[in-house]
Each structure stands twice: as structure tokens, then as C-alpha cells.
Amino acid sequence: MIQQIVAAVREGDDARIHVLLQDFAREADFSAALALRRQLYRDLDADQGPAYPSRS
Predict the structure, then answer these.
(1) CA 41 – CA 4 distance, rounded (Å)
(2) What does the chain look like in DSSP terms, one character per residue?
(3) Cα-to-chain-centroid distance, residue 48
(4) How far apart are CA 18 and CA 10, in angstroms?
(5) What per-residue confidence (pLDDT) applies to 49?
(6) Number of Cβ within a 10 Å radius of residue 20
(7) Can you say how many angstroms the Cα of residue 29 is from the centroid of all Cα atoms in its chain?
(8) 8 Å CB contact between 16 and 8
(9) 54 phi-psi bin (left φ>0, alpha ψ -120 to 50, beta other)
(10) Alpha-carbon gap, residue 49 to 45, rounded angstroms
(11) d(CA 28, CA 19)
(12) Residue 25 phi/psi, 5° resolution?
């Protein structure tokens, strides 16, 4: 993706640069959302402890 953006900049293709940057931002937002989701579930699991209580 970065290589395509660089190529568009070198060619001076403003329309293509705009589209590529929008796509890049969408992918970055999606990746960030997935990372946040993983972290939230990890924190939730840590707060709740084991699924089954230990028998002591």
C-alpha cells in the first residue's frame, strides 16, 4: 500500500493519492479496532478470573 502511495505521489496523480490515502486510513482504523477489541476481551477475561472455580 505504501509503495502505491509513493508511486502516485511521484506521478503527481492527486485523485489516486486521495483514494489510496482513504483506503490506507480505513485499513489502519480497522486494524486499530481489532487490536482494541482483543485488548478489551483480554481485560474482561482477566477481571472475571477462570471460567470454572477451583476446588480447594
Answers:
(1) 35
(2) -HHHHHHHHHHT-HHHHHHHHHHHHHHHHHHHHHHHHHHHHHHHHHHH--SS----
(3) 26
(4) 14
(5) 59
(6) 19
(7) 5
(8) yes
(9) beta
(10) 6
(11) 14
(12) -65, -40
**Cell 500500500, residue?**
1
Give 3-56 pLDDT, tens digit per residue. 999 999 999 999 999 999 999 999 999 999 888 888 888 877 776 655 555 565
Q: Which three cell numbers stand for residue 42?
A: 483480554
Polymer length of the chain: 56
Four-CA torsion 3, 4, 7, 8, nearest 10 degrees: -150
pLDDT for the residue numbered 36: 87
